[in-house]
Input
Amino acid sequence: MSLSVRKPSEDELRAAADELRSGSAAAFQVLYKQYSPSVYRFCLRMLGESSTAQDAFQETFMKVFEHHSEFRGDHFPAWLFTIARRVCLNHIRSMKEHDMFDEEAHSSAPMITSTDIGMQMCVNNALMHLPLQLREAAILREYEGYSYQEIASIVGIDISLAKVRVHRARLLLRKLLAPVMQEWYES
Amino acid sequence: MNLNLLISKYVDGDLTVEEDQVLRRLLSEQPAAKEAFDVATVLHFSMLEDADSIVIPNDFLLETESRITMKFEAQEAIAKAKLREQRVKAFKSNMTRLSSFVVALLVVCTVPFSDMFIGRKSIFASNIENQTSNSQFETILPSSDKEYRAKHTHRSRFTTVSTEFASLISTDEVVAVNRETSISAPLYDGAREKPELNASTSLSLPIASQNSFSVQAEPSSTFASKENTFLTSAFPSRKNSTEPTIAEIAETTAEKTEIQVSTFVANNVASNRENSVASMAISQSVAYSLGENSRIGVEIGYKGIKQFF
Output
């Protein structure tokens, strides 16, 4: 027999976010259960490696604890992902992998050719070859389903720039996955 | 219009009707456009399908939750302890204020009252006695009244009531202090120099107590035009004294202060054909202010009435 856990409503999540400001442990648990999977996925897709992703995940929620009283506004997930993004960027910087986007540099990025690992693995692989700014935009839009406005808020950019980054990420992914997609298309 | 932009808008569901028509035309006319469209949509849906595919190790998830929750709980406990400490502080502060009130109560009720009343009860009583039996009545009463009294002496009798009283004051109706009257309270030192003391010689008690004895010390018409010294006579021993008088002690503190100390002194002598009445009252009160017009405290004093028919 499996126990089904009721998902909190939008109002309950909003109330929990409000209570989190005053340091409520119960509110934290509600929000953690709701958002921890997506934060973990985000960290893993940003960092590409599970042990580093776990570190980033824990650090993200540690920062939530440390800065819970600073949370303003009513969109807790955007605030949470802003923290997660910063933590991931810090990890990437510390791994000396934080490059600014360079079209020429990425034009020579290795093509994803192996089809035997499956389409989704290929996409994940290609994702790691995207420049950080495009990678985070693609993850937030394609995987987490955030609106352009929310992406702009999380990343701290203008909404039009968020659209541009998502669009360019899609184009670059298609370019990186061209051999795989060609193979798929012909079959 | 740029094909890739149209495809991106299609994926986002943001195409307008016109853009949708353009895209459909391009897809039907250009095989390369159709291929690009198919690749883009497959890629998009592949990522969408894959969105929830990553599974977090349950142990790791629970361990992190437990660790952070414990931190929140510890912080909550500290906050609660701080709040409790603040409440204890506030309670202690209130207790300090309350104890200062009690001390003030004791001081006000003990020292001045002992000074006022101990050993003076007899003076108080004799003053009432004097007022109704001394020559003032006789000299002031119209001759017709004297004759009337002479005829009815067999009906005359005296009733003297002299009691101590102590009342608890609990009121929401604080009577405004009549400053002018309070200041005119040189009832002890200057009454003789102020023969016009005929309007109202009452000292309003700032704390109205229904239970307390209250005398409106308006001079009767009989005495209105005369120098009356009956308020002075309440404290004969202080008449020429340089010591602080009750009137000075009676200086009422500002209405909003936490502790009010007030003294009430009143005297009334009235006479007509039927009877004569002399009444005196003196009391001292100390009250703790609970708000704008609310007071709680005690009032202690003497009251005396002497009446003859």
Remarks:
- Chain B is about 45% helix and 20% strand.
- The first strand of chain B starts at residue 158 and ends at 171.
- Residues 119-308 of chain B form one domain.
